[in-house]
Description:
Layout: E1 2-9, H1 13-24, E2 29-32, H2 40-44, E3 51-54, E4 62-63, H3 70-76, H4 79-88, E5 93-95, E6 100-103, H5 108-120, E7 124-126, E8 131-136, E9 140-144, E10 148-156, H6 171-178, E11 187-189, E12 193-194, H7 199-205, E13 210-217, E14 220-228, E15 232-234, H8 236-242, E16 251-254, H9 261-271, H10 277-281, H11 287-293, H12 307-318, E17 320-322, E18 326-327, E19 335-337, E20 358-360, E21 368-369, H13 374-392
Parallel strand pairs: 1-2, 1-10, 2-7, 10-20
Antiparallel strand pairs: 3-6, 4-21, 5-6, 8-9, 9-10, 11-19, 12-15, 12-18, 13-14, 13-16, 14-15, 16-17
Helix pairs in contact: 1-5, 1-13, 3-13, 9-12
The structure holds dihydroflavine-adenine dinucleotide.
Dihydroflavine-adenine dinucleotide is lined by residues 9-15, 33-35, 40-41, 44-46, 50-51, 130-131, 157-159, 162-163, 167-169, 171, 334-335, 362-364, 373-376, 379.
Amino acid sequence: METFDAVIIGAGAAGLMAAITAGQRGRRVLLLDHGAAPGAKILISGGGRCNFTNRVAPAGRFLSANAHFCKSALSRYTPADFIALVDRHGIAWHEKTLGQLFCDGSAKQVVEMLVAECRSAGVEMRLGQAVRSIAHDGAFVVETGQNRIRAAALVIATGGLSIPKLGATGFAYEVAAQFGVPVTPVLPALVPLTFNEPEVAMMRALSGVSLVALVSIGKTVFREAMLFTHRGLSGPAILQASSYIGAGEALTIDLVPDRDAASLLLARKRERPRIELRTALAELLPQRLAQALAPDGEAAPIGGLADKVLVAMAERLKRWRLTPSGSEGYAKAEVTRGGIDTRALSSQTMEARTVPGLYFVGEAVDVTGWLGGYNFQWAWASGFSAGEAIGASS
Ligand code: FDA
């Protein structure tokens, strides 16, 4: 049997950061992953450029049954800390919209940086290792196909269920069940939404059309791009709303933010009564969408339409209510919402309150960020907090 101070299962964003932090504090750390390479999701993130954090990461950008839980970790390890790390490694980056920070080059640079940090912190990384069992007799005994390893600390950093083809599993929830740690219901989040007929037929016909919209779910409103797809709706505004929507709940979409559609249509009726409605709508919307939204008789001149018809059309553009049939599921979800119940964890260290030495970090925990670098910031911050606690333990 081998002995380490800490075994970390999952060499994704959170596990790599926990390993680096504990290793730098002199702990002997073993980082295990069943995949063939570390940081698989980092590599595909941000369209290959990794939106590695956001300029600011306030608690309000995260969903959790306990809105306050994330605050402590986020203040221990801030976006500025990760930016400083990226800068020390000479990785060039730029800011896109809404404070989102991306590599100029490739997400590969972030993985290489984290692997280099692991190496200099003396972390031992073993890949292609499936964990067969975990026993606990005060310390933890982790059995893989190849070894039995004993450690005082065990960090579960195996993420959520999103993108099974990249190696996602429900391992964290199984470990939680083994140790009596509660888990809140899990659901795909940051995911495209699907719709039934007749809406989906219209969306399919518009596949590829995108526009900036205001998408509301209850009191939460996102102003970002929205995209029509073969199965429904996607794009950042829809992905964001998907994290908030409940079953059977409706979205309200303002397709013409900042525009007074009713005044524009009524003005066109007065000024240019011979133009078709879809021509007037095309001043507000992408051409294909304008065409699809114009009702039957669309070719009739706008001058022949009653004011109340035009006002009703404008109202539809401002407040289009749609109820999704579901989502594209974990195969397409960027993250998993829900997870290890934060009431069972210390917000300072991520340690399970009832199982000393057992830590859960990253996406496995019931903390889900908005789109925009927030999920990586949570992975870095929660991984750091656990690594720091392990480093401080005697
Ligand atoms: P993560 O999933 O990264 O890592 C878990 C690790 O555990 C994996 O290496 C896996 O192989 C391993 N594992 C799983 N089960 C195991 C088992 N049973 N035994 C051993 N190992 C196991 N976020 C963001 O902030 N900015 C962005 O640009 C993007 N972009 C993005 C694009 C796409 C397509 C996706 C799917 C997701 C994003 N995200 C994102 C979200 C982000 O990738 C995600 O929140 C973090 O990777 C979560 O980090 P974790 O370390 O918690 O899990």
